[in-house]
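INFO batch 0412 | record 1 of 1 | parsing
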Amino acid sequence: MVNTPFDIRPSILVGDTADVYLQRTLTILRNESINPTVTMEFFPRSDGVFCGIREVRALLAKVLPETGSEVWALEEGQVLETGEVALRIKAPYSSFGLYETTICGVLASCTGWATAARECVEAAQGVPVVASAARHVHPNVSANIDYSAVIGGCASCSTVMGARLAGVTPSG
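INFO prediction complete | emitting tokens
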């Protein structure tokens, strides 16, 4: 089991946040008694700072079988190149296929935020940068943005929850 402060909401686990075609796919496969072991790879369409894998691992720890599955991923904060495989999952499809939307969304959002933060940190040329995006986003994502900004190189962030996820003291 993965020990993580990332909360995986029940709506994610039951598939309410998944694209509906993934739910339909699982229904068809279940009705046909088909559950192949598949390998799914996730990769960026542009260079960036990889972020979100801790949250994805928390999800996968809840849904993948204890045996018969493999997960490989780059580390949080690693620089990514366009097309580079960042995450590879090999497991029975029914155990994780429903979560493709969530995994893509978490990795794309967090990587985008971390990459933008890295650009700000580089532009600051050594002046510490504190992330303070919370007032401009929905409160359900403010901690994730702050966490991603710290992974991208910010010295701190403005929300208590974001700081808790990133292991820093909030600032601002």
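INFO post-check: The first strand starts at residue 37 and ends at 42.
INFO record closed
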